[in-house]
Design brief:
Layout lengths: L1 H19 L4 E7 L2 E4 L7 E2 L5 E2 L3 E5 L4 E5 L5 E4 L3 E9 L6 E16 L13 E3 L3 E4 L3 E7 L6 E7 L1 E6 L5 E5 L2 E5 L9 E2 L2 H7 L5 H22 L4 E6 L3 E2 L9 H16 L4 E4 L7 H7 L2 E20 L6 E17 L4 E15 L6 H4 L9 H4 L2 H21 L2
Parallel strand pairs: 9-10, 18-20, 18-21, 19-21
Antiparallel strand pairs: 1-4, 1-6, 2-3, 2-5, 5-8, 6-7, 7-9, 8-9, 9-12, 10-11, 11-14, 12-13, 13-16, 14-15, 16-17, 21-22, 22-23
Length: 404
């Protein structure tokens, strides 16, 4: 009997776990009233600020209502009053990624899609469907207005680019930021027209103004970047320079060049669309180096700490004594814009890894290892793990700035 109880408990836990990992989007906040129709059901139930929407659920926002939906990747969708939307959540292969497709039956929505879909997922990247239109996107923000009478669709771009296609005629156009277009069932998407101040002001009546202003500011940054690249003065390129070693380390490892080389290697994996390289140069002015090489962005910095520390601990009852070694690193990294002659950001990144008090974790033994990017003995060592921590932090922060 006990075995049966335990088996039942395990099955219950597994069922609960499977249910927990089902992809969903959640209502972050709302005002007024909204209702949800669950997949496979006909009845409607009132939604609240903790409601979750799963695959094939429908949400409708009633008079004077407003709903904000959040996706796990940070994307956001505002649903205006008198709108009805179907949510599709598609698991991408065996990966943990989820593609969200949205069907707008009628009403108005504003999207802020934060995560840029990788190139290999473009065929299944997020799409917005209306009765007349398919909108394909990667990372962007825009508004969609759908007529309840004839399905006519207006798209207003705030940031980025989308592909707008007429479903019936299969005619498409690319719509860029600061433009709008209109599509009906039997008409091509009209030639894009510039957004007016009244278009922006009307959006700010139901979307938080600061979110729209942030997207407009981001688009202006992109426009400047595109201008410098199109005029041939600069390429969409990032140069990583050697770091200045101000640490107390004086061993044989050339950390001033190996650490930035590791940084460049990891940045290539994250920023696949950008040309990234490490340049070993004695020139002092990093902005000048960027201009000479037509590189829009330059990374430079200082190694402020690179050291091993011995540490000992005694338990409160003094019955246990433990010695271990801690590897520490502190990097101060600058990201520069050579085209604009300015500092984009300056951040400090640290790493700290502890290991057993053994000879292989001391400088005499570590210094025997060949310090190169492709040497696994180095990258798997105590100080290699310490460097990896700081590099991972730096890549995340730098990629965030360069993907804006």
């Amino acid at each position: 009997m006990q075995v049966i109880v335990k088996t039942s408990l395990i099955i219950s836990v597994l069922i609960s776990f499977c249910a927990a990992v089902e992809p969903f989007v959640s209502i972050d906040s709302m005002c007024g009233k909204a209702e949800v129709q669950r997949a496979g059901h006909q009845q409607w139930q009132f939604a609240n600020s903790s409601t979750k929407l799963y695959n094939n659920d429908i949400i409708r926002v009633l008079d004077n209502g407003l709903v904000r939906l959040n996706w796990p990747d940070g994307s956001t969708m505002f649903i205006h009053q008198n709108s009805q939307v179907l949510i599709n959540l598609i698991q991408v292969g065996s990966s943990k990624g989820v593609t969200s497709n949205i069907t707008v039956f009628f009403g108005a929505l504003y999207f802020i899609i934060k995560k840029i879909a990788p190139r290999e997922l473009l065929p299944t990247a997020t799409k917005i469907y209306t009765p007349t239109t398919v909108i394909s996107l990667r990372g962007t923000s825009f508004a969609v207005f759908v007529s309840k009478k004839n399905g006519g669709t207006t798209v207003k771009m705030i940031n980025g680019t989308v592909l707008v296609r007429n479903i019936l005629k299969n005619v498409s156009l690319f719509l860029n930021a600061s433009y709008k277009t209109y599509i009906e069932m039997n008409t091509d998407p009209i030639v894009p027209d510039a957004l007016l101040k009244t278009d922006i002001d009307s959006l700010k009546l139901w979307v938080p103004p600061h979110l729209i202003d942030e997207e407009i500011a981001s688009q202006l940054v992109k426009s400047k970047r595109d201008y410098h690249i199109l005029t041939g003065k600069f390429e969409d390129r990032l140069i990583v320079l050697p770091l200045v070693n101000n640490s107390s380390y004086t061993g044989p490892w050339q950390i001033n060049s190996v650490i930035p080389s590791l940084l460049a290697t990891e940045l290539k994996k994250s920023l696949v669309r950008m040309n990234i390289s490490m340049i070993d140069t004695q020139k002092v002015d990093p902005l000048e180096i960027g201009k000479i090489n037509k590189a829009r962005f330059v990374i430079t910095g200082v190694i402020e700490n690179f050291d091993l520390l011995q540490h000992a601990e005694i338990s409160a009852r003094a019955d246990e004594y433990r010695e271990y070694i801690i590897g520490k690193i502190k990097l101060r990294i600058q990201l520069l814009d050579a085209a604009e002659n300015k500092l984009i950001c300056e951040e400090t990144f640290t790493g700290e890894v502890s290991g057993k008090n053994k000879p292989e974790n001391t400088w005499p033994e570590l210094n025997k290892i060949k310090c190169t990017v492709d040497n696994k003995d180095f990258t798997n060592s105590l100080m290699g793990g310490t460097i990896r921590q700081s590099i991972d932090q730096a890549v995340e922060k730098i990629a965030r700035y360069l993907e804006q």
